[in-house]
């Protein structure tokens, strides 16, 4: 998707129009906001956040710069911002949404949720009828600008909203619009995926130590090998199997190692990990209250 779509709401200097707010100012909110500033999409003076924890608020300002603002209440935030990111724990989402509902201006504002598992229906239910909402499934590498995110539009979200969200999320990595029904699968691949990769890096490093490498060197080699291999897939556009086959010489070390991985079922284990995480995501979504607008 082209995130420079002309439909995006841009000021003459290329920034997203209006104030961008964060309901919740934890690590993900800080990373997103800092990415927006770094990417030239939002100036620090057009960022505002609310968090009941003073420490989180201070950390937010440290992340975006001294021109960033803190709201004294959710109501102040709702009145100030055109786009509001809901960046709270999923269990806190109903309370957070209720705190801005009375000041929400349907047709003028956009709610973008990064709360895992909270459905579009649950997001829209506490807000006035006709409110535009977008649900995002980010992942933790967004914290360092290497995220892989997908987002789904609610009933009243427009192509312009999609363009705005796409441009903002692309400031912290890759982003793609997808139907909400696919977000559980996205959770299984990219949302939970970093944990699978960390486990693989740890295991590769342990293997290196077992083979005689110092622990620090083994960990560095394992992490950089995973990062480099992933970048090869992205940069070349080649199928992972083709890149794998290019490394596996007949009768060589790599094919011997691959045979051992297959003997232990790594491929089926990863497939099952993704599908099980996706299934759990769907179960959590079904537990969310609120399936209609007031």
From TrEMBL:
The organism's taxonomic lineage, starting at the top: Bacteria, Pseudomonadati, Planctomycetota, Planctomycetia, Pirellulales
GO cellular component terms given for this protein: cytoplasm
Name of the protein in its database record: Pyrroline-5-carboxylate reductase
NCBIfam families cross-referenced by the UniProt entry: proC (TIGR00112)
Catalysed reactions listed for this entry: L-proline + NADP(+) = (S)-1-pyrroline-5-carboxylate + NADPH + 2 H(+); L-proline + NAD(+) = (S)-1-pyrroline-5-carboxylate + NADH + 2 H(+)
Swiss-Prot/TrEMBL keywords: Amino-acid biosynthesis, Cytoplasm, NADP, Oxidoreductase, Proline biosynthesis
Binding site residues for NADP(+): 23-28, 87-90
GO molecular function, one term: pyrroline-5-carboxylate reductase activity
Compartmental location: Cytoplasm
Organism: Botrimarina mediterranea
Keyword set includes Amino-acid biosynthesis: yes
InterPro entries: 6-PGluconate_DH-like_C_sf (IPR008927), NAD(P)-bd_dom_sf (IPR036291), P5C_Rdtase_cat_N (IPR028939), P5CR-like_CS (IPR053790), P5CR_dimer (IPR029036), Pyrroline-COOH_reductase (IPR000304)
Pathway terms, separated by semicolons: Amino-acid biosynthesis; L-proline biosynthesis; L-proline from L-glutamate 5-semialdehyde: step 1/1
Membrane-spanning residues: none
Enzyme Commission code: 1.5.1.2
Main localisation: cytoplasm
